[in-house]
Specification:
By secondary structure, the protein is an all-alpha fold. It has one domain: Farnesyl Diphosphate Synthase, CATH 1.10.600. 77% of the residues lie in helices and 1% in strands. A hairpin with a 2-residue loop joins strand 1 and strand 2.
Length: 366
């Protein structure tokens, strides 16, 4: 079976080869592009390879022990897993830019890296504007590279129908996460125009399309499609993947308010300063008395929130019972996903791997 450690090694090797090839193209254009080549290697070397792992689990859920069959699917799996990692990197670059985040994984975010390059060289013009523009273009470059990686892998598959299914699943994922990101920034601005009773539903819609499908369901389906998965097996993976993806993002929502900066790599209460209208916030608003709700609305999204003000908002949200309710939803979604898995008829190794994934993403600290 294609195991997560083996795939991670293969993805790292594939990305190293791919980036070396693209670096030679950039060098042929101009040595001024060397910083982009160097930064791409650094930026793509980090992370937990989480979506690549999900892709491998989807593949294994179909192929099981036959995962190394010589039909081009193994190479396509590695390429697709690598493409998912590059696509995710592009999404992070743009997400940090949209959120005006200073850090990513405990290091400067991409636009801050390019801003520092400008400032350090004492170039003409505005360093921050250069950083933003460079990050937009770098993210676009990564998006293009993710497509190139995927197409290179799928081109070698004998089963063209499966290759087509994998490409369509990737395309849909790309659309969903992009419009999900738009819905997220829309909600941060337009929430005042919608009745309080609709906020939870709207927050859940953002959660589903910006994160839940993209983080777990789509990579599982892409891997299973490459493996030639039947409609039944892919349906099982969807029934498992979506609720676990929701639980995964709900855990992220809690960490965005209460996470330890030493663990998450983000400042404490970062989601509060950014004004994220998450499910946690929507539930807290439902439960709070009017005076606390007004206070939360007034302070949420203020980038100048002090540590004391962050602490006050954290206590208000917890005292409302919202954290306990979110924890209950995480537990219920995990149970629903594992129930679908138990009834799905997948082989034991695949079921064990997916069960391990479910617990890993819902009980994590970062």
């Amino acid at each position: 079976m294609v195991t997560a450690p083996r795939l991670a090694d293969a993805v790292n090797e594939r990305l190293e080869e791919f980036l070396a090839d693209r670096a030679s193209i950039l060098r042929s254009i101009s040595t001024d592009l060397d910083p982009i080549s160097e930064f791409s290697k650094v930026f793509l070397s980090g992370g937990k390879r989480f979506r690549a792992r999900c892709c491998a689990l989807g593949f294994a859920a179909v192929r099981g022990a036959a995962g190394d069959a010589d039909d081009g699917s193994r190479e396509a799996l590695v390429a697709a897993a690598s493409a998912l990692e590059v696509f995710h990197a592009a999404a992070l670059v743009h997400d940090d830019l949209v959120d005006n985040s200073d850090t990513r994984r405990g290091a400067p975010s991409t636009h801050r890296v390019f801003e520092a390059q400008h400032a350090g060289a004492a170039w003409a013009g505005d360093a921050a504007a250069f950083g933003r523009a460079s990050a937009i273009l770098f993210g676009d470059l990564l998006l293009g590279w993710s497509d190139e990686l995927l197409d290179e892998g799928l081109a070698g598959m004998r089963d063209r129908a499966s290759a087509r299914a994998a490409r369509l699943a990737f395309n849909r994922m790309r659309t969903e996460v992009t419009v999900g990101q738009h819905l997220d920034i829309l909600e941060e601005q337009a929430w005042v125009a919608h009745p309080d009773g609709s906020h939870r539903e709207r927050a859940e819609r953002v959660l589903v399309f910006k994160s839940a499908k993209y983080s777990i369901e789509a990579p599982l389906v892409i891997g299973a499609s490459i493996a030639g998965g039947s409609e039944h097996r892919i349906d099982v993976l969807r029934e498992f993947g979506l609720p676990i993806g929701i639980a995964f993002q709900l855990r992220d929502d809690v960490l965005g308010v209460y996470g330890d900066p030493e663990v998450t790599g983000k400042p404490a209460g970062d989601d509060l300063r950014e004004g994220k209208r998450t499910m946690l916030i929507a539930i807290a608003r439902e439960r709070m008395p009017a005076v606390d709700r007004e206070r939360l609305d007034d302070r949420l999204g203020d980038p100048a929130l002090s540590a004391d003000e962050i602490g006050t908002l954290q206590r208000m949200i917890r005292d409302s019972g919202a954290v306990d309710e979110v924890e209950a939803v995480i537990a219920a979604d995990t149970e629903r996903a594992l129930g679908a898995l138990a009834a799905g008829g997948l082989d034991r190794d695949a079921t064990d791997g997916l069960t391990e994934l479910a617990y890993a993403v819902t009980r994590r600290e970062h």
